[in-house]
Amino acid sequence: MSTLNSTHHQSPFFLLSGIPGLEASHIWISIPLSIMYVTAILGNSIIIHIVHKTPSLHEPQYVFLSLLATTDISMSASTLPTVLKVFIFNHREIEFHGCLAQMFFIHTFSSMESAMLLAMAFDRFMAIRNPLHYTTVLTPSRITQMGLAAMARGVALMMPLPILLQQLPFCRNFVLSYLFCLHPDVMKLACGSIHVNVIYGLVLVLCSFGVDSIFIILSYALILKMVLGIASREGCLKVLNTCVSHILTVFIFYIPLIALDLIHRIGRYHSPLPHITLSNIFLFLTLVLNPLVYSVKTKQIRSALDRLFKCKTR
């Protein structure tokens, strides 16, 4: 009886989903996915390396960029095992606690990425508002404190998620919608009341991504106000150009995130493809594009990359 009750209240495993209708092509799909993972990890690792090794890049803007790259690598590592396992080996099972652990790390690193984007918006605001005292305000110790605060917030907010899910009975279909575990997806498989989970999930969105996005918008509203006060058109464009990379990164992160959350909360689709497509964009394309955006749009990063590869070819 106790064994039966334990099975009723806690699923021994979940089944991950690939791309419906393309199961026969999973091995071929794994090739571009593997390339994306390699690109994301290698690209972000190069960003971290050149910021660390180049003294001229030891400025708050680039230190925050290296922290963002570190978060992206951690996010890649969180999803890589299950994604490649499904596509290459067609192994869809994931143990219950392993699923909860993956879910915790994915959501924690997402929260940290959002916090890093907010810190980078504050960095741009300070650099434009008071460039002479910019580095005295954002000192290395303060940047470290901001990074630790982002980590602490992510862990504190996401820790209740697996704890709440462990209290739920899972006695129906155990098939997940994605290649990895996300809280809304796992939560919907429970056969008990999920009101607490739904409410807490909404609180998480508002307290992390909601608050961060509001302050990012506020930062850029203040930046725009300061820029419009610059007399010359060339001066306006030069100042705005320093924000382009960060603005693009914010859009790359938040647009798929908002769309995915809306689909989970209000979307009703007969096809799972919208969920799968947006989740893949959010967790794959974002990690690949971030280092590419900064490499292409930031002159200092491009120059450091040129010097790095010239040294490698000698």
From TrEMBL:
Residues 43-294 form the G-protein coupled receptors family 1 profile domain. Its main location: membrane. It comes from Rangifer tarandus platyrhynchus. The chain crosses the membrane at residues 27-50, 62-84, 104-122, 143-165, 198-223, 235-255, 275-294. Keywords: Cell membrane, G-protein coupled receptor, Membrane, Olfaction, Receptor, Sensory transduction, Transducer, Transmembrane, Transmembrane helix. It comes from the Eukaryota. This is Olfactory receptor. It is found in: Cell membrane; Membrane. Belongs to the G-protein coupled receptor 1 family. Putative odorant or sperm cell receptor. It is a multi-pass membrane protein. Pfam families: 7tm_4. PANTHER family: OLFACTORY RECEPTOR, OLFACTORY RECEPTOR 56B1-RELATED.
